[in-house]
Design brief:
The complex is a heterotrimer of chains A (about 170), B (about 200) and C (about 120).
Chain A: H1 13-35, H2 44-70, H3 73-96, H4 122-146, E1 147-152, E2 158-163
Helix pairs in contact in A: 1-2, 2-4, 3-4
Chain B: H1 4-22, H2 29-47, E1 53-56, E2 67-70, H3 72-95, H4 102-121, H5 125-143, H6 149-180, H7 185-193, H8 199-204
Antiparallel strand pairs in B: 1-2
Chain C: H1 2-19, H2 23-44, H3 61-67, H4 72-102
Helix pairs in contact in C: 1-2, 2-4
Classes of the chains: A mainly alpha (about 170), B mainly alpha (about 200), C mainly alpha (about 120).
Chain lengths: ~170, ~200, ~120
């Protein structure tokens, strides 16, 4: 089960194999924390951080190019804005449904208490925030780690920058 | 007309998120959206002169929810913030041609306007802190916008100062909550005026 | 008494911001200050001998409200952690760019501004 990039940049074969097995598990766990945010601790932000950890693990194991095969950078930038716009649209749906801004207009009946459907507007809000946080943290990690700095010359005053995609 | 108060915050936020989506293909879009949003906001804030209202977000009543409150001081500050923002964004149509990524400038600028509108409108002290931080982080990025040495150094020093100030404001908010038990500004004012003055509260103020 | 320990943490962070020359250490001092304030916020909501504020099915509402720890400061701290994450990301990016431009992490050598 060796992939085509196993001899190129990134970490060793053990790390790459384990990352390939674990990326789905971590993402699924993050999705669970997002969806049950109204019942158990967690919610949009914490679940989004865990989902971003799956992509960051891929970046560490395979390098930035390997991570781009799963989530390309223009797609992450678009998802970032779309998640935030979805959250704003959900807030305005409260006004459109005849009531106040940000109102929880999906009512719940008592038989659904303590289970998943009792969230109302909270579940789509959590999902939108998770999408935004995942793509934002993945982009922040890529931006901070893809750029390498080489300082040349004496006194540290002359700096040469080498953009290096591993 | 009764849902104007959330629009003052939601409209620049929506503009700031729409601009990065389409700006690769349409280079006229950041100018149009940025200046259009500022014109709408200035018009709305002029239209709000002479009104007073309270808007309960999410329909939750006052002790439980966040209020947006509009009174005389709020209207003056809204007119000032949005008017000056309109002038700045009209000027930056030509001035920002010097920089390459103009759409990022407009996005950050609209974030800052949204934060400042939120600071002025809100009636809840923690909501005040959140909007102040939105405006502050957008302004740290705007100070560092050119990428030259002086700009980066200024941005770092400003960001550290702003971070320390925000932490101390949060400390004050924590102490106010400890003494009064509520985050709503009207309830805190009532609590203070009925003689609930003691040492922790004075330290917080 | 334990609130005073949180204020000691804030003071340690403030010392880090004021007295250190390495910009990374200044950023770490700022983060320690924020941790101290978050800890103080959570401790404010504590009720002696209370339980966690998640209601279980079949629990009486009045008994839950009398025994649970206050959940509002926990929500405030969650929001504040997100805000400090944003500030931290921005400061770290600024540190990287400052190293590129100046070639050093020392803040006493970054004096190109006047005044």
């Amino acid at each position: 089960m060796t992939g085509p990039e196993d001899r190129s940049a990134g970490m060793s074969l053990v790390v790459k194999t384990v990352a390939r097995w674990l990326k789905g598990v971590i993402f699924l766990f993050g999705l669970y924390i997002v969806l049950y945010g109204h019942l158990t601790p967690g919610g949009g932000f914490a679940g989004g951080v865990i989902c971003a950890a799956a992509f960051i693990l891929l970046t560490l194991a395979y390098g930035a190019r390997g991570a781009y095969r799963h989530l390309p950078r223009p797609a992450a930038e678009k998802l970032d804005s779309l998640g935030a716009l979805a959250f704003l649209a959900l807030a305005w749906l409260g006004v459109w449904a005849g009531q106040v801004f940000f109102r929880n207009f999906i009512g719940t009946s008592p038989e659904h208490y303590f289970r998943l459907p009792s969230g109302g507007i909270i579940i789509p809000c959590n999902l939108a925030i998770a999408v935004k946080v995942t793509s934002s943290l993945f982009l922040v990690f890529i931006m901070l780690s893809v750029l390498h700095v080489v300082v040349t010359g004496e006194g540290g005053r002359r700096v040469a920058r080498r953009r290096h995609e591993p | 007309m009764s849902h104007v108060l959330p629009i003052m915050v939601a409209l620049p936020l929506a503009g700031a998120f729409i601009i990065p989506l389409f700006s690769r293909r349409a280079t006229w879009l950041p100018d149009a959206v940025g200046n259009g949003v500022m014109v709408c906001l200035t018009g709305l804030s002029f239209g709000l002169i002479g009104r007073e209202s309270v808007y309960h977000m999410g329909g939750w009543p006052t002790p439980l929810g966040i209020d947006l409150r509009l009174d005389g001081l709020t209207v003056i500050l809204l007119v000032a913030v949005n008017g000056i923002g309109l002038c700045a964004s009209l000027f930056s149509v030509s001035y920002m041609e010097l920089y390459t990524s103009k759409f990022r400038y407009y996005s950050l600028f609209l974030f800052m306007v949204a934060g400042m509108n939120g600071v002025v409108i809100t009636g809840d002290i923690f909501n005040l802190y959140v909007f102040m931080e939105i405006a502050a982080i957008a302004s740290y990025a705007l100070v560092a916008f050119g990428g030259e040495q002086e700009e980066l150094e200024a941005a770092f020093k400003y960001a550290v100062l702003g971070g320390v100030a925000s932490t101390l404001i949060l400390l004050g908010i924590a102490l106010v909550y400890m003494v009064t038990g509520s985050l709503n500004m009207a309830q805190i004012a009532a609590h203070i005026s009925t003689g609930g003055r003691d040492a922790p509260l004075l330290l917080a103020m | 008494m334990i609130y005073a320990m949180c204020l000691v943490l804030v003071a340690v962070g403030l010392y880090g911001v004021l007295a250190k020359k390495n910009i990374v250490k200044i950023v770490i001092g700022l983060m320690i200050m924020e941790y101290g304030v978050h800890l103080l916020l959570i401790l404010i909501g504590y009720r002696g001998g209370g339980t966690f504020p998640i209601m279980r099915p079949g629990q009486d509402a009045a008994a839950y409200a009398a025994a649970a720890v206050d959940p509002l400061p926990q929500a405030l701290v969650l929001t504040s952690i997100v805000i400090s994450l944003g500030v931290l990301a921005l400061l770290v990016a600024l540190c990287i760019k400052l190293y590129e431009k100046f070639g050093t992490f020392d803040v006493t050598e970054m004096r190109r501004l006047k005044g």
